Every structure is written in C-alpha cells, then in structure tokens.
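From the methods appendix. Each design record in this collection lists the tokenized structure first, followed by the designed amino acid sequence. Records were kept in a plain field format so they could be parsed without special tools. The example shown here is representative of the layout used throughout.

RECORD:
FOLD TOKENS (257 positions):
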C-alpha cells in the first residue's frame, strides 16, 4: 500500500452515462486498476450541498436514484457499498477542529454523483464508502473542506471529488457536436490545473469569460477544488482523461498528489 494516496476529480456526466459506451466509461473502469485497493473511499459529489456539512454514517448505503426521465434500466441499478461509521465520526471531529459545522446522518445513501462512477471503477462494492456534502456553493469553503480532509490520505483512504469539467445541461445535444466555448473552457482548465494556478479556480470568472457558460451553477465545478486542496494546492494536477458527452458535457478527470 502507498503511504499517501493521490486525490481524484472525476466527471460523472449525465445519469445515463453508466449505460453508455462513452470512452469515459472505459477510463473509469480502468481507474480501479491503477491504484492498490484503498481501505475506504471518501467521495464528495456535486449532488449533495448542505450546511452543516453532511457525512454519511450508516453501516450499509442505499442507492439514491435522484433523477427522472431516464431508461428504466437505470432505476434497477444498485450499488450496495458498506459505510464506515467510525471513520465518519472521526471526519466529523476533524471538520469541527477546522471550523466547520457538521452532522452525521445514517439515513442518506449515495447519490448518483457517487454511486455511478464507483459502480464503474469499483464494481464489486467491496470498499467502504463515506460521502461528504459540499458545505455550500462558495468555492473558498469547498477548498477549505479539501484541506481539512487532507490527512486522510495517509490512512490508505482515497478522496474523490465528483462533478463535471463542463456542466451546462441546456447545451447538451444528441449529435455530439462540441461548441467552441466548451473546448475553450477545457483548454483553460487544463492550463490552470497543470500550470499550477489554483487561484484561477478559486476565482474562475475573473480569469476566463467562458466560466459562466461552462458552469451556469458552480456545484459541478466545486469538487475539483476540494480534490485539489485535499492533496496540495501548491502542486499541479495531471489530467488523465478528456472527452465530451452529449456534445458539451465535459468528462475530464484529474489526479492530484
């Protein structure tokens, strides 16, 4: 086992992503083979934002199908991952020490921003999972959350931020045409992450006019900051996958060490 795990940002796409043959599906299937098996996975999804910060503390997770209008096969999928109540309690203590209000919950399961990518990367559901909510849509707070979680990496725990590199659902199309603004934002994001410009991500609307179009709301962008800050915001990340789904839904994924 490595002494310190990297942290990951993954794009989880539209809910029916798991049923497709998208190249990002293959990337996530390969992800589970890239690293030794972690003791626990801690995941922060764009689809859970609350204050106090929520932390799942159940022994076994339910699978939340938090979407409508998709093929019936999607609602039949189940990811019966176990939880880690002891780790959840320690995370709550850690967040308190770092100035966050937090709350353990044994009733909430895993939303699709968590279980869909994990079903692809770790399909056997043998690794315990703890999901943590984003504290708000304030990017600075999301980065602070990552810094608070950073010591977990020394315990064979894999930290994942799950969102989307470009997330404008109104711009989706079925002809798989990617607009110039989406490609342009992905280039800016790559240059910012691999160029070690964390400040760009904290204030993206100041550094690129494309941010508002790429992210009309910030919840799918925020887990990227959490994942980077949980590693080292002073070290660049590395993109290990890049593609688009439905034309303009960015599926880029990054690794931080």
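DESIGN:
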């Amino acid at each position: 086992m490595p002494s310190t795990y990297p942290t990951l940002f993954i794009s989880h796409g539209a809910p029916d992503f798991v049923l497709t043959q998208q190249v990002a599906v293959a990337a996530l299937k390969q992800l589970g083979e890239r690293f030794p098996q972690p003791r626990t996975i801690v995941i922060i999804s764009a689809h859970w934002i609350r204050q106090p910060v929520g932390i799942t503390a159940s022994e076994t997770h339910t699978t939340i199908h938090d979407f409508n209008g998709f093929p019936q096969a999607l609602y039949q999928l189940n990811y019966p991952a176990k939880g880690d109540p002891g780790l959840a309690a320690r995370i709550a203590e850690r967040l308190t020490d770092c100035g966050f209000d937090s709350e353990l919950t044994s009733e909430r399961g895993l939303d699709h921003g968590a279980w869909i990518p994990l079903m692809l990367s770790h399909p056997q559901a043998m690794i315990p999972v703890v999901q943590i909510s984003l504290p708000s849509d304030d990017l600075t707070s999301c980065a602070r959350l990552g810094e608070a979680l950073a010591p977990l990496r020394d315990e064979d725990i894999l930290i994942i931020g799950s969102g989307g590199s470009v997330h404008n659902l109104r711009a989706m199309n079925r002809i798989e045409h990617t607009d110039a603004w989406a490609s342009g934002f992905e280039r800016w994001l790559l240059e910012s992450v691999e160029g070690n410009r964390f400040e760009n991500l904290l204030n993206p609307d100041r550094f690129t006019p494309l941010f508002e179009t790429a992210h009309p709301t910030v919840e799918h962008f925020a887990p990227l900051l959490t994942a980077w800050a949980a590693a080292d915001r002073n070290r660049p990340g590395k993109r290990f996958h890049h593609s688009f789904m439905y034309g303009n839904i960015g599926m880029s994924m990054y690794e931080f060490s």
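APPENDIX NOTE: The chain has ten helices and ten strands.
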